Amino acid sequence: MCQYQTQPLKDSSALSIVIAVVFVSLVATGQSIASVKTSGIWYHVRKGDTVWDIARKYKVSHNSILKANRIQSEKRIHIGKKLFIPGAFPEHKYGTWYRVKHGDTLSRIAVNHGIPVSNLVWRNRLKSADQLQANQKIFIPNLHPSSFAPPMRIKLVLTSDYGYRRHPTLKKRMFHYGLDFRARKGTRVYASKSGKIVRSGWRSGYGNYVLIKHVGGFETLYGHLYIIRVKNEQYVKKGQVIALSGNTGRSTGPHLHFEIRKNGKNVNPIHYLNLR
Ligand SMILES: [Zn+2]
Predict the structure, then answer these.
(1) What is the CATH number of domain 158-271?
(2) Residues 6 or more apart from 43 whose CB is under 8 A from it?
(3) How does residue 172 score in pLDDT terms, banded at 50, 70 and 90?
(4) Which residues lie across from 195 on neighbouring strands?
(5) What is the 48 CA–ligand 1 centroid distance (Å)?
């Protein structure tokens, strides 16, 4: 389904978006790093990470990470620590190119690289999954490091993608601000990330919906729900059941409408969802 508020996706310059991310991150985390004058992202250190690995991953210099975070000794990088990566892009700009071989299928490439097929289709602007030709180059994106968990634990089947489409009931070309996943009525819906319920209830279009606010300027929205199991102002943990899916609002069949917003703007959730 769709979000009907006219929220024009103005192409404000990429730079201003990046700067906004930095500003919001600084405020949200309460960290004051005076030396940060550049754009970048926040990164949560994971098991086995070294500053060298992180620098290589984001194609930035090792020194710039040390400087931006005032790190004297690399031994002080512990799991869960938040590092500012100056110059890194907030979305996974980076990835690798793969040359299609005879007999390759998109599903096989997707599985081999741990990437959802729908992500490859979208990122490569393919019309369908069986449009591959030998020697064609396919972009394999790196998934966003702070990925969101799938909102349901059933096999996710995408029934409507993010972007322009002909609206199924309104019969006109409209922007679809989320992903639609097939789901039988009553399927458990989980918080994709920990956060606070900022809105829930009924709205035309969405039907019963829940909006969760997360750190870093992110929000997730779950629409067409059957039963809501959370209340406004409540904190939820990633993986906690927040609702049962349904077919409420402007919907042509039981499914979950899932959105991710970043600093108030919708983004394509496929870039953030960890579907592996
Ligand atoms: Zn939808």
Answers:
(1) 2.70.70.10
(2) 54, 58, 82, 83, 84, 85, 88, 145
(3) confident
(4) 236
(5) 38
